[in-house]
Amino acid sequence: MQPIQLLAPDGKLAENEVYGPYIAKLSGEELRELYRYMAMERRLDAEATSLQRQGQLALWAPALGQEAAQVGTIAALKSSDMVFPTYREHAMALYRGIAPEELLTTFRATRHSGWDPRQHNFQVYTLVLAAQTLHAAGWAMGIQQDQRTGSIPRDRAEDEIVVACIGDGATSQGDVHESMVFASSYELPMLYFIQNNHWAISVPTRTQSRGPLVNRAQGYGFEGVRVDGNDVLASYAVATKLSAEIRAGKGPKLIESVTYRMGAHTTADDPTKYRSNEELELWEGRDPIRRYRSWLDSTGEADQAYFEQVDAESKDLASDMRKSVLALEPIDIERVFDTVYSEPHRQVEAEKAWLKDYEAGFAEETTTEAGGTR
Amino acid sequence: MSAIKEMPMAKAITAALRDELAADQRTLLIGEDIGALGGVFRVTDGLQAEFGTHRVIDSPLAESGIIGTSIGMAMRGYRPVAEIQFDGFVFPAFNQITSQLAKMHSRTDGKVKVPVTIRLPYGGHVGSVEHHSESPEALFAHTAGLRVVAPSSPQDAYWMTRQAIVSDDPVIILEPKRRYWLKGKVDTENPAPDAFRAQVLREGTDATIATYGPLVPVALAAAEAARADQRSIEVVDIRSISPLDDETIARSAAKTQRLVVAHEAPTFGGMGGEIAARVAERAHHRLLAPVLRVGGFHMPYPPASQEHRYLPDIDRMLEAVDRSFSYQRGV
Question: Which residue among A117, A149, A178 sits closest to B112, beta carbon to beta carbon?
């Protein structure tokens, strides 16, 4: 099944009756912003990878190659739509205004998460695969509840939708199935956004599914669309069309965004062990940023000065990010004690008090030693 | 009309759910068959007719889905009360409960609260088939972030349910299904003790039996039977498994100097061992015998035709009390 593609790898835009009009509506500034976010994310990704190599991050999960899939999709949403990400939605996070150091908190292991989900309508990253697809369904049930009863008055509930992100590997998880059953049965305002980046660590997509993942939607009774995830314009157009339909009350929809993870799964694995150079080269030829830049350039939507400006901005982002990431303060374990529960819990309080006394004991010993005769 | 009524435990829980549904629009019920059928134990009987299909939600047959969507609703500000039909069917939802529900508040540095209540009919002695009689409390108590309580009377069931729903933390209520038909007085106006504290139900001087949920009436009967041997047994209803009110249990043990802990779950790796260790830490020098455990065996819950040999009864509790008396200190 051929994915929807508007922009060919050589940077030529094809005519498309259904999806073309969505692109035609974008202003020059909006078109340039798509490029800007993709370029910024790529720079952030490179910087994070090098920070990990230098031992400054515990782990990094690069999104290299998936910039168009993410930016195109999130640009199609309203800022009030809640996103439930996996752990690789860096471009989407940046788009929602999450700062690089907030994004990298988890990976520097100073905290489990670095931002307030409500502030950005972007939930924290989930490492247990697909668990968030059920939270997304529950959130969508909450939207329906708000709409029916107004029990939690929110101005925005009227046409709010939820985006549940998953990778191709996660589609094998049972929670995805249960989530889609709930979404379909209750006609939830949900968009499933599968980024098929071809590899679940070292296991190829064909081990998750023998047919296109987009076909899963049909089995649950809703529509799915397969899109070229390396084409930012097609990603935007498809997400805009589907989200409008979801907003209109037509129930859940699914996007299979066919893309490619050009880097490793995380900095802990070595992709040369499980995939060929030929495959990588093939996908490098489909690079989403180069493709889009060449189109912007050829149409005159962006000029050399603009690209230079974005380069400069990316450079600044990288150096600022390096400073701010290195300056991240680790969470105090006392704070961890305090957040296990919302309300007081006897055992947690006792252990917190014990640790305080225990550590104070060392402080006294040190003082005694220092104050003692030598 | 008096606020004190006589009712079975199942009806006390129904009343608690009704009162919370009425008190707070944000409270929702979700579970399999809880709507038109009123739940397999009829605990939610009539609630869907009263509050509508959108507040009493019949879910697809999917336990992970029930808990996972409850988490999502709670993230948005609702207070879902999820029913899992039977104890043994909680395991398909185990991941959502332990890796997501329990940790959400902490992993978001307190920014996201998930006030989900899970109602879990639990325990044996109902003569059912496999996966219908389990006692998974230690698994949940071991998971930081969850609260676990077990009522033993209609009064407790009523107030524990209400207190669980209004708590901002996730709470698992272990409803002792063999006691659903146990009748008792429920005072719907005056709150029972804090759901997260233990309670001395019967004063005694010679030994303490501490237990919770379905075995509380058994412990009270054992204490009564022990009077024939001139033994005065104190009975502590533990009530809250996490947090554990080890102070109240240890105080009783220090007073009577002998402690037997009983539960239906297997003793190996169970709550009894945790309680024994904590009481030993607090009151070792006051005890005349080691803390003894009475519980299930290290086996899957047996076919119901053998459950009478598996489950602690009055005799097993009294045997443990006898054993406790057989210890002689310093010999």
Answer: A117
